[in-house]
């Protein structure tokens, strides 16, 4: 069964494998399959579920809410996010303004069929809204009982520090960061992780298997597997494009003997790798089939010896992206519409 860890310096415990429905529910897979995946997660001991209002333009939240209906609410930790455009995508339908946050939380709760979310996250940093306005709105959401804790996603270390200071002054808890993190993408290690550790936040990391690349199913010089994320024209192919390099894919194949010697699949090795970082509270996994959930949860509780971690570094070499400036570089410079 899946183990649990504290989220930041709070008393909240979450499953160290979190089920997320980005790019799947409401788009890639039919609702009945999505429901089976959620139920497979529950059966495996996952109690934490992550979504966002923008996923499939709000449909993913509805699918998750329906799939979780009937489960005791106190046994679950439900996370969602706000920032990206939703609905009719009018001038105030994105960002972290007070108006958008207060309207968005109500929509998310309605779709998720719950009175509150355990974690409400700023899906990106809003350069067009004063941070004071954003954090005051989050504080009001918490005081209204609509969210228990606050988190951020893909914020820089400086932005996290500023947000944490305001949250503390307002008497609310900013306890988490949700960045991209994997063996291949380590841009948070130099600045975001040390800052988070100092301030009492921990990471809920997405893409631990690098959009599927670290499963080893993409082989250099070979056609893309049918039905894979790299062939998904609804968004998956765009997200995975940065990893579709023959040299990188060849290095990834070099991880297969490492996984085999440990009795792990390559996906399990990748998920276990991110969980070795003591500032990582959980790894987010997605699934288009229930069996994928069952495969990934086996990474829970796995401890990788130091020599294995060093060997992985040797295999991947300079294919690893480490530049901390990539967080800011990939962030929207203005509110999307």
Automatic annotation (TrEMBL):
Oxidoreductase in keyword set: yes
Domain NADP-dependent oxidoreductase: residue ranges: 16-315
SUPFAM superfamilies: NAD(P)-linked oxidoreductase
Keywords: NADP, Oxidoreductase
Keyword check for NADP: yes
InterPro entries: AKR (IPR020471), K_chnl_volt-dep_bsu_KCNAB-rel (IPR005399), NAD(P)_OxRdtase_dom_sf (IPR036812), NADP_OxRdtase_dom (IPR023210)
Family: Belongs to the shaker potassium channel beta subunit family.
PANTHER family on file: HYPERKINETIC, ISOFORM M
The protein's name in its UniProt record: Aldo/keto reductase family protein
Naturally occurring in which organism (per UniProt): Georgenia halotolerans
Taxonomic lineage: Bacteria, Bacillati, Actinomycetota, Actinomycetes, Micrococcales
């Amino acid at each position: 069964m899946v183990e649990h860890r504290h989220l930041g310096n709070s008393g909240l415990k979450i499953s160290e494998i979190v089920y997320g429905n980005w790019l799947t529910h409401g788009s890639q897979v039919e609702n009945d399959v999505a429901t089976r995946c959620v139920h497979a997660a529950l059966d495996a001991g996952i109690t934490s579920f992550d979504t966002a209002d923008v996923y499939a333009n709000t449909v993913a939240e509805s699918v998750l809410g329906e799939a979780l209906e009937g489960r005791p609410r106190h046994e679950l930790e439900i996370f969602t996010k706000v920032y990206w455009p939703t609905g009719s995508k009018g001038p105030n339908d994105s960002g972290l303004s007070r108006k958008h946050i207060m309207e968005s939380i109500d929509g998310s709760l309605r779709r998720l069929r719950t009175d509150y979310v355990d974690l409400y996250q700023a899906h990106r940093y809003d350069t067009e809204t004063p941070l004071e306005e954003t954090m005051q709105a989050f504080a009001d959401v918490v005081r209204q009982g609509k969210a228990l804790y606050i988190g951020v996603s893909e914020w820089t270390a400086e932005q996290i520090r500023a947000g944490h200071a305001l949250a503390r002054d307002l008497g609310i808890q900013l306890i988490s960061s949700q960045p991209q993190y994997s063996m291949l993408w380590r841009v948070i290690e130099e600045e975001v992780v040390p800052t988070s550790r100092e301030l009492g936040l921990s990471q809920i990391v997405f893409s631990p298997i690098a959009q599927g690349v670290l499963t080893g199913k993409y082989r250099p010089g070979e056609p893309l597997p049918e039905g894979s994320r790299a062939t998904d024209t609804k968004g998956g192919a765009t997200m995975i494009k940065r990893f579709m390099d023959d040299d990188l894919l060849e290095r990834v194949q070099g991880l297969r003997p490492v996984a085999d010697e440990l009795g792990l699949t390559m996906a399990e090795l990748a998920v276990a790798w991110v969980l070795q970082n003591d500032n990582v509270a959980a790894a987010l996994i997605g699934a288009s089939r229930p069996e994928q959930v069952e495969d990934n949860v086996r990474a829970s509780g796995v401890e990788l010896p130091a020599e294995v971690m060093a060997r992985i570094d040797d295999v991947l070499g300079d294919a690893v992206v480490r530049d901390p400036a990539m967080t800011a570089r990939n962030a929207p410079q203005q509110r999307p519409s």
